User: What shape does this take?
Amino acid sequence: MTDNANAISITATELAKLTADFRSVLAKSHGNINGRVVIPAAQVEQYISRYCAMSGNISIAESPTIDISGLHIEGPFVFPPGGYPAMDVHNTIFDNKATFRDVIFHGKVDFKSIGDGSHNTEIIFRNVQFHDVANFDNANLYRASFKEGILFEGKASFKSAHCGEMEDITFKGYSDFSHAILGSIRKSIFLKGALFDQIDAGDLRITESVFHGSASFKSLKVSVLNLATVEFKSDALFTGSVISNDCAISGTRFLQWCDFSDCEFSGPILFSLNTFMQVPRFYKVTMYPDVSFHGPQFKCFKSIEDANAYAELRKLVPSQDGEFFAYEQRARANAMLKQKWGFSLTALVSKAYDYASGYGQSIVRPALGLLGTIILAWLIFSKTSLSNYIHASEGRAHWTQDMDAAFGLVLQNVFNPVAFWGKEPPFVSDLASVVYLSIVQTVLSLGFITLLLLAIRRKFRKGSE
Assistant: This one.
């Protein structure tokens, strides 16, 4: 073994002895509360500072664990900035403010069961990096705040923890918040899977965050669910959850599956300005009557499964029956065309209805269609040689003699397409092509007028409900 290796070995031994002496002194010279050794914060800080000073030439892998577990730390505690190996803080109580700032933990960190519920201590994490597993299971972090560039490179576990405010956090590894009680999560990034299953109390509020991996929120039992400006790049699953009060999901993008099946909503529900790249699933859902999808963007109309999902939404949100009916029919038409290699008379008629009026949802489309038909017919009849074959009929009212014959024929095709009671129409043509084009214009115009009247009727019915 080289001299340098001996030096490293001695240093590691000394670090282990430093920790052993620290624990030995604690056991002999300090009091005990509920099985925890009572110690002033200054002594703990001194131990950590000496450890840091002695470990300068030893690798993280060889460094023994910093052990401040099972303590009752009195007074304000400030963890000395710097880089550290593994650390054990489990079952420790801070009876005053505790601050972790500008710290890098290279090894595993154990914060399990810190606090006991009776000490409502403020714990601050600022610019802290966890390069290995970080375990906060069952921790009492009610007044804790994780902010300003927190990084979890390994797994972050907060199972059954009572968490405070989290902001500006990057989770590079898997994160587990199952059974936890959460404050809020803001401006955070989850690069792998995130588990929030069976959260059983409080509110769940997540804003301005991005989930790259799958996000599971199964079997929640929370008072409020609030998702605002969140992006789910993979599946988001909320199945079997119970929301006892408000549910508000706004400005959120669901790029993959979104499943709310078997959920129970006991309060008002608002889905506002969300984007769904796949049809959200709401099968077997119990909903509060006050539910609204305000300004949603539904992007998927591919299959019969999509059509069935929209049909389910029609039942759950009767105030938007027409909108979801249109989505359902669009999906069915696309699925039929796909199954029959692009041709299905029923599907083609359905698609024409969609383009012409959005299945009765649009007033603008048929109005523009009618106007476009009139303008196109006038251009054909007046700007081509066909104009020479259109004239006012003899013996009609004088005003028809002064009107442009082509324009008169266009209006006649819309409002008086047939001669009533055997009377000759105001404008006529002896050319067969003009007659055939007039029939086409009449059919299209009457179709657009019918769609326009249906859309207006639907709008008034919707407004009166």
Observations:
- The chain has two domains: 67-343, 364-464.
- Confidence is low (pLDDT under 50) at residues 1-9.
